[in-house]
Design brief:
Elements lengths: L2 E6 L4 H12 L4 E8 L7 E4 L2 E4 L1 E2 L10 E4 L3 H13 L3 E4 L15 H4 L3 H4 L4 E3 L3 H17 L1 E10 L6 H16 L30 H13 L5 E8 L6 E9 L5 H9 L4 E3 L11 H4 L5 E8 L6 E8 L3 H17 L3 H4 L1
Parallel strand pairs: 1-2, 1-6, 2-5, 6-7, 7-8, 9-10, 12-13
Antiparallel strand pairs: 3-4, 9-11, 11-14, 13-14
The protein binds NADP nicotinamide-adenine-dinucleotide phosphate.
């Protein structure tokens, strides 16, 4: 059995990665269609060894398409996901708009694939925020072992999480520092080159940013509504790979050794934790890889049952494209495609 797949946002960071992941994993496609805005009509994108010519979403008829992987932002997903689902295709969406909808499952396959069984009511499945997928992949086995009460997380998020224009801004600013050009910023609120910015997305009245709010809400939806989480989300001058300093408080005792053993067995996780110079993972090493890496696992002596850890993954892969393709594979393996559409 093979499937007609369309990628919406195919010229973007996530869209290009979606095409690579589909090709790398030999996803069973009968045809792949690359879609973007009208300004990209005719542009070329790679799909394995093949080159696809980009077509415009606005002029595309989805009849006969089986699976649509969307990564073109909420403004596109909000109107288009229901229209595409009505045409009979299953939508797997990377934008934030549908994530907290009660009738849209929010899925990280290693954590809550079973929510697909009864959850697909609108023909739409959501992919979480890029900082969440890696976090829940690391937290799930620890939650099963000792029940998480509270998480305090500080993120170090790469500029690719904000799209291709944001990557270009870091490149231009870095160059400007060396050649003493004027420093310009359009995408970020302050200089990002050689700097860090404690602000991702708009502020809520509470003082938290929307990115921080999403971390709490999405972890609760995917993993457990009883988990309390507070986050500080920070943009850093890294091109690819999000890092997270995570502090976890548990209901029951769990040692660092037990956590390391549990994480070593967990799907999607690679433990690199040598307690010596360089014995941990940084985003440069995680870029282009599928795993969620966990390092620096240690006891937090300031609470009764506490651990601290360092979690790193490629935000364009596990944080977006890989996770979306894994969702599609789960749906096919569980024979849910026709039922969902
Ligand atoms: N980057 C990440 O780590 C990450 C992780 C998880 C989720 N996401 C989400 O994925 C989405 C895309 O992110 P990205 O980083 O790939 O952004 P990006 O690099 O800026 O790419 C945006 C894509 O959307 C397309 N697009 C924009 N407006 C469109 C329209 N009106 N009709 C059709 N296509 C349109 C663009 O096409 P043109 O080139 O033709 O403008 C481009 O292909 C966002 O919702 C983001 O929140 C991103």
């Amino acid at each position: 059995m093979s499937y007609k797949v369309a990628v919406v946002g195919a010229t973007g960071n996530v869209g290009r990665e979606l095409l690579s992941v589909l090709a790398e994993r030999a996803f069973p496609v009968s045809e792949v269609v690359a879609l973007a805005s009208t300004q990209s009509i005719g542009k070329a994108v790679s799909f394995g060894d093949a080159t696809l010519k980009v077509k415009a979403l606005d002029h595309y008829d989805f009849k006969g398409t089986d699976i649509v992987l969307m990564s073109a932002g909420s403004a596109v997903s909000k109107p288009w996901a229901p229209k595409i689902a009505a045409a009979g295709a299953l939508v797997i969406d990377n934008a934030s708009f549908w994530r907290l909808d009660r009738d849209v499952p929010l899925i990280v396959p290693e954590v809550n694939a079973s929510a697909l069984e009864t959850g697909i009511k609108k023909g739409i499945v959501a992919n979480p925020n890029c900082a969440i997928a890696q976090l829940v992949v690391a937290l799930k086995p620890l939650h099963d072992a000792a029940t998480i009460k509270r998480v305090v997380v500080a993120t170090y998020q790469s500029v690719s999480g904000a799209g291709k224009a944001a990557m270009d801004e870091l490149f231009r600013q870095t160059r400007a520092v060396f050649v003493a050009d004027p420093m310009e910023h359009k995408h970020f609120t302050k200089q990002i080159a050689f700097n860090v910015i404690p602000h991702i997305q708009e502020f809520h009245a509470s003082g938290y940013t929307n990115e921080e709010f999403k971390m709490m809400a999405e972890v609760q939806k995917i993993l457990d509504p009883n988990i309390l989480l507070t986050a500080t989300c920070v943009r850093v001058p890294v091109f690819i790979g999000h890092s997270e300093a995570v502090n976890v408080e548990f209901e029951r005792p769990i040692t660092a050794e037990k956590a390391r053993a549990v994480l070593r067995e967990a799907p999607g996780v690679l433990v690199v934790d040598k307690r010596e110079d360089g014995g941990y993972i940084t985003p440069v090493e995680a870029a282009g890889e599928d795993a969620t890496y966990v390092s620096r696992i240690r006891k937090d002596p300031t609470v009764e049952n506490g651990l601290s850890l360092w979690v790193v993954s490629d935000n364009l892969r596990k944080g977006a494209a890989l996770n979306a393709v894994q969702i599609a594979e789960c749906i096919i393996n569980r024979k849910l495609l026709k039922k969902a559409a």
